[in-house]
Amino acid sequence: MHDDKPAILVLGAGGHGKAVLDLVLAHGGWRPAGVVDAAPKVASLLGVTVLGDESRLPGLVRSGVTRAHPAIGHNAQRVAAAGRLAAAGFGLPALIHPAAILGHGATIGDGCAVLARAVIGPEAQLGRLVLVNTGAIVEHDCVVEDAAHIAPGAILTGGVRVGARAMIGAGAVIRPGVTIGAGAIIGAGAAVLADVPPGATVAGVPAKALPEPAP
């Protein structure tokens, strides 16, 4: 029986919701309370029932489900979903896959998700709602601020700082000591050798700023 394990609700029935639910099922310390979604399109996810839309949240809290995770990959949408969960009365614990590696002194903020084969180096710091995706590496002394996303296979070498809500694309590599500004976007496979200003988009090897889209 698993009734002695704390229950956690997953908000989001898309692809990232599936990844987070896989983490919950693999963890051993949690049991899934179900899945909710703003606009449900499936009846179940990995065998776990999709309970309905977010109108179910207050009733779930009243039933004793007091922990949840905003399983949404898009940074701004994840922050908004976390706000709705908190307003409904849910706590937002960090979720760490059992196949992830955490170095000594690493700190993980509330609502973070650290997926399978991710590595968080010694004394690295993750803020609230940070997503470190499958196989990503956040090396020693890195600081990743609130709600940033480190995509699959990306590598932050030592002492990198990533601003709030920045997006580091899949397979990107950030040189030691580089600062990525808040809200910046780093393209997939980019090699970032210098600081990136807030809100900028860079891509390529070496990474260069992309031109602003025409109005």
From TrEMBL:
Residues 8-81 form the PglD N-terminal domain. The keyword Transferase applies. The keyword Signal does not apply. InterPro entries: AcTrfase_PglD-like, Hexapep, Hexapep_transf_CS, PglD_N, Trans_hexapeptide_repeat, Trimer_LpxA-like_sf. It holds the Pfam family PglD_N. Keywords: Acyltransferase, Repeat, Transferase. Belongs to the transferase hexapeptide repeat family. This is NeuD/PglB/VioB family sugar acetyltransferase. It comes from Roseomonas alba.
